[in-house]
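Students often ask what a 'structure token' actually looks like in practice. Rather than answer in the abstract, let us consider ADP/ATP translocase, a protein of 190 residues. Its sequence is given first.
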Amino acid sequence: MAPMPHSDGYWKWFSGNVASGGAAGASSLLFVYSLDYARTRLANDAKSAKGGGARQFNGLVDVYKKTLASDGITGLYHGFVPSVVGIIVYRGLYFGCYDSLKPVVLVGNLEGLFLASFFLGWGVTIGAGLASYPLDTIRHRMMMTSGAGMHYKSMFDAGSQIIAKEGTKSLFKGAGANILRGVAGAGVLS
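Now compare that with the structural description of the same chain:
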């Protein structure tokens, strides 16, 4: 990201870092979302088959064929909106906070210390991950409704139904694993 300009002020610079990180993440989704959708469907299919159920798909191409037949092209993009919002939140906070906090926090004795940079990166990764995790949960739930009789009207409908049926904590199921996985993200930032 850009070095901090002294004339424009810190918050304007910080907002620019968050926006550019978010835009980079959102633009990448245009190219990879349908593959993520297919991967999620295949993983869930394999999980249900282990539990004694019949497999629904015979591979990646079969996921595409069956989804296109049942829901059209939009079926491949169930959950796309919360995914875009989530990636903007995650990447915006991830890159924006790190690049904005680094020149403020890593000064004096902490300047140039790998461990200090690593812990700042890990903290930013955890914060960004927790802030965006509910959107990821909503995205996965919306993906799993493709081809089924049930469809959420919007990401807000999905979120409110999940909270009403399972409670707010259900939006964070699996977040602990993401915190541990964040060590790798912290290493990249360091």
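One point worth highlighting: The first helix runs from residue 10 to 50. Ask yourself how you might have guessed this from the sequence alone, and why that guess would often be unreliable.
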